[in-house]
Amino acid sequence: MTAIANNAPTSTTTPASAPSTTALFQEATPAQVRQWLRTGEAVLIDVREPDEFAREHIAGATLLPLSRFDPARALSTAKPGQRIVMQCKSGRRSADACRLAAPLATSGTPIFTLAGGIEAWKKDNLPVQLNTKVSGISVMRQVQLVIGLCVLAGSALAWFVDPRLVAIPAFFGAGLTFAGASGTCALATVIGMMPWNKAARSGAGCTTGSCA
Question: What is the 3-state secondary structure (H, E, C) of 43-102?
């Protein structure tokens, strides 16, 4: 439910420029966040994965991936009186990060999510730092593509060539199970070391659910 932002005049409608409020955090528009960053009123935390951040990010953002999000570390990025703004690609992961950071509200630190993420930021023609040497397809998506193709190929071979080749999709299924249980993924690590991902290889990994 949308509510009138703090310090906004009372009216029967919510001003277009005011952030919308949820039970745990607020949404802020790209224009609002841009202004806060310019005036030092907020810090920006990018909760995407390292390879996504290496490809493009908003200047001044601090990388703190959702897969290993630490509310205490998030709080340490802000000075007294500053807002904390979470940001991802489209807003879903940043909202999850805000929920994880809910305890910060007790410290008096306002928590916001950048509505629409970096995609909305770019739609408003706001600048990003871009590294075209890094693949535009994230390591997570590359892992999904490789596993999907191998499962399809293995299933087709088992059906048309030799039933014993069902071991191929079974192998990848076992790998997915291990990745989900352990939080690590050898395939993601290997793909992260490929030349097209070298700018982000230090952060390659398999996040919870990213190989599913």
Answer: EEEECCCHHHHHHEECCCCEECCHHHCCHHHHHHCCCCCCEEEEECCCCHHHHHHHHHCH
Instruction: Determine the Cα–Cα distance for residues 197 and 212; give it in Å rounded to an integer.
Output: 21
CATH number 3.40.250.10 is the correct assignment for the domain at 26-130: yes
The catalytic position among 88, 98, 185, 206 is 88
The burial of 149, by beta-carbon neighbours within 10 Å (0-12 exposed, 13-18 middle, 19 or more buried), is given as exposed
Using DSSP's 3-state secondary structure scheme, residue 202 falls into helix
Nearest to 115 by CA among 137, 96, 95: 95
Residue found by looking up tokens 């904390």 in the block: 84
113-151 pLDDT per residue, tens:
999 999 999 999 999 998 877 766 777 777 888 989 999
* Extents of the domains making up the chain: 26-130, 139-203
Interatomic CA distance for residues 59 and 65, integer angstroms: 16
Identity of residue 44: L
Q: What is the pTM of this model?
A: 0.65
Does the active-site annotation cover 88? yes
